[in-house]
Amino acid sequence: MIGAIEAGGTKFVCAVSDDNLNIKERVRIETGTPEESIPKIILFFSKFDLEGLGVGAFGPTGINKNKPDYGFVRKTPKPGWSDFDFLGTLRGSIKCPIYWTTDVNVAAYGELQKGAAQGMKEAVYLTVGTGIGGGIIHEGKLYSGYSHPELGHIAVRPSPVENDSFSGVCPYHNFCLEGMASGPSIEKRKGVKAASLNDDDPAWKLEAYYLAQAAVDYTLSISPEIIIFGGGVSNQKQLFPLIRESFKEQLNGYVQIPPEDKYIVHAELGDDAGITGALLLAKQVANGDEKAAAYHVYKP
């Protein structure tokens, strides 16, 4: 039996499966404080004899095993989680090899192995929801540098079409992608949650502008084969024609890319991308595949 945790800013999804990724049980736990959430996670997994666990955590997160903050959630506005030793707390109760990475990385890996990026070597996965984060697939593997990429905090230019005077909701940066295009930013502008807006609300065109601008930046800097959007806000299907149209205008034919409808796509696995990727990585560590898991593995 293998286990997985997709720890997002709004909810935790915990699941167990067999080696063929047939999920036997899963649970959703609201993201409260560590004191509220962790005991529920431990209780869920205490019922199973796990051979491996894959964990994707919201960030910023320490994923470099050679640094002292490995396994920690670093500075975050989520109450109680800043500088919290998440991995250390888990391994105190769950005695199996653990693959530790970010929530967007497990989703990116899920899409690489079972979703929209199958057969590809270079991909960008971006989740747009409570926050915005991204995972990069390079040469068929999850990419990490000194830390993990923070694709949601790239700077963006305010929309010239809409004369946008909003400076964003990010507590760290004005005019970053997360501050300008996350779910909370839409709610701040409109006074209601994004899911409550009509499909033809002008807010979607503005949202598409910022996501397209980010896609242009990733295209020019990373040159992926595909850019995949997931997360709650990205579940709005009317967004994708708007993103592709704005992307084409902003890129202005500067570099060659695949056809826009094959290049800018919705996550094929939808909301299951993260838990699928975490289970796949759990299977790797359970099988002792150190090469595939790189330095993100904790062994008890």
Automatic annotation (TrEMBL):
SUPFAM superfamilies: Actin-like ATPase domain. Its cofactor is Mg(2+). InterPro entries: ATPase_NBD, Carb_Metab_Reg_Kinase/Isom, ROK, ROK_cs. Its EC number is 2.7.1.4. It catalyses: D-fructose + ATP = D-fructose 6-phosphate + ADP + H(+). Signal peptide: none annotated. Transmembrane segments: none annotated. Keywords: Magnesium, Metal-binding, Zinc. It is an enzyme of class 2 (transferase). Belongs to the ROK (NagC/XylR) family. This is fructokinase.
